Amino acid sequence: MGKNIYSAGITNYSTTQTIFLQLLRIVIGWHLLYEGLAKLFNPSWSSESYLMDSGGIFAGFFQSLASNPDVVNVVDLLNIWGLILIGSALIIGLLVRPVSIAGIGLLALYYLSHPPLLFHTYSMPAEGNYFIVDKNLVELVSLYIVYIFPTGFIAGLDRIIFRNKINKTD
Q1: CA 33, 37, 40, 45: dihedral to nearest 10 degrees?
Q2: Which of 133, 85, 78, 127 has the alpha carbon at shortest distance from 111?
Q3: Cβ contacts of 72-75, under 8 Å, gap ≥ 24
Q4: 21 touches 93 (CB < 8 A)
Q5: What DSSP letter does each residue of 105-132 carry, written as one string?
Q6: Among 31, 32, 50, 87, which has the highest number of CB atoms less than 10 A from its own CB?
Q7: How far apart are CA 122 and CA 126, in angstroms?
Q8: What is the pTM of this model?
Q9: pLDDT tens-digit profile of 111-164?
Q10: What count of Cα atoms within 13 Å lies in the side-chain half-sphere of residue 10?
């Protein structure tokens, strides 16, 4: 009989594998949390210039978001609190699977807004941007790894919250 997500291979990992899976989740969480807090505590931060600088096939969509100050305020709020909540949840191992999907979605929006393609130049600095692969894509793929491994059930609040469900499936 197949294993479910609550008990799938939790005891089949080596100590090194377990440590590095947890570390990957926590490091990504820290990065997202830090980015959100940096934006929250910077009163002059806004996504408007980032959205206006957008390139690629979705540039029109992102630039249209930036054209309305009320929409920019909503985007800023969603961006800041999305980063903070996703990052915090990853660090503490809370609802890791759905939070990983939310993080993947957010990172996909960043990637689509500023795709690292040869024919695009952006006025904003392009730290970590290379042809096709950039830091957003690397972190997005890393979050998928966090999603497919039960890191919250190995060590995190998911293990405590879903303890009864884990015990019932063993």
Answers
A1: -90
A2: 133
A3: 72/46, 72/47, 72/48, 75/47, 75/51
A4: no
A5: HHHHHHHHHS---TT---SS--TTB-SS
A6: 32
A7: 7
A8: 0.84
A9: 999 888 755 555 454 565 577 788 899 999 999 999 998 888 888 888 888 876
A10: 19
